[in-house]
Amino acid sequence: MSKHDWALILGASSGFGEATALQLAAAGMNIFGVHLDRREGLARVAEIEERIRAEGREPVFFNVNAADEEKRAQVIAAMRERVAPKEEKVRVLLHSLAFGALRPMVGEGAVSQKQMDMTCDVMGHSLIYWTRDLLAAGLMGEGGRIFAMTSEGSTRVLPSYGPVAAAKVVLESHIRHLAVELAPMGITANAILAGVTDTPALRKIPGNEKLIEAASARNPHGRLTTALDVARAIRVLAMPETQWVTGNTIRVDGGEGITG
């Protein structure tokens, strides 16, 4: 990785996105960050930007809705204006958007069609749109790495997690198709399945306390996965030597997933 490489982090202000932005900056990459925060969250964003600068790297953050087509076009244009004159590229795209409906599928409080469509669009389909626009703008080429955060909920039933689970299934399918379609361009695509991690997104899931307790008990390491664990793995997977690793759902969970 070099000072001419950039990473685009979707969901850069907390959790996996924040940790990965900091790890990739430490590895020598500049960071484009897309996040959606109200005024009270902007101090945290400023802190992340300062930590990236402390690594000698450049942060450029956009406080916009990553699923909005018009905003996406504006961000892509601003990115191109920043890197094109220097012939720099986006080497890593991380999709770590955690905004969706947590509701049952049927009965009282069931998810609406609008909520289901929104969840799958933000947490699933938007990966395709960002990838397509990066390529169309000439911002990513050979050696590119695409990562998308999935979860165990894609194959297990959790209370009120159905809409998000559907989005994760969509996301994993998109990764497989991107891996095949982008292989001739020398770009890889992988989904990252983290173990249960105490993030702001997890805290919104009903019954998260039981999830945390169960995961801590069954993880061979006797603790939860952390965002830093995941970010370190992505940092390694972003290296040039991993060009033959593509189309996978990669567990980063300390063995949690094989213990039942």
What does it look like?
- This protein has 260 residues and is α/β, with parallel strands linked by helices.
- The protein has a single domain, classed as Rossmann fold (3-Layer(aba) Sandwich), CATH 3.40.50.
- The protein is built from eight helices and seven strands.
- It has helices at 15-26, 42-54, 69-83, 113-136, 162-182, 200-203, 208-218, 227-237, and strands spanning 5-10, 30-35, 59-63, 89-95, 145-150, 188-194, 249-252.
- The chain has a seven-stranded parallel sheet, sandwiched between helices.
- Helix 4 links the parallel strand 4 (89-95) and strand 5 (145-150).
- The model has no long low-confidence stretch (mean pLDDT 93).
Largest sheet: 7 strands, parallel
Q: Look up the CATH topology.
A: Rossmann fold
Helix count from the secondary structure assignment: 8
Average residue-wise pLDDT: 93
CATH superfamily: NAD(P)-binding Rossmann-like Domain
Topology:
Layout: E1 5-10, H1 15-26, E2 30-35, H2 42-54, E3 59-63, H3 69-83, E4 89-95, H4 113-136, E5 145-150, H5 162-182, E6 188-194, H6 200-203, H7 208-218, H8 227-237, E7 249-252
Parallel strand pairs: 1-2, 1-4, 2-3, 4-5, 5-6, 6-7
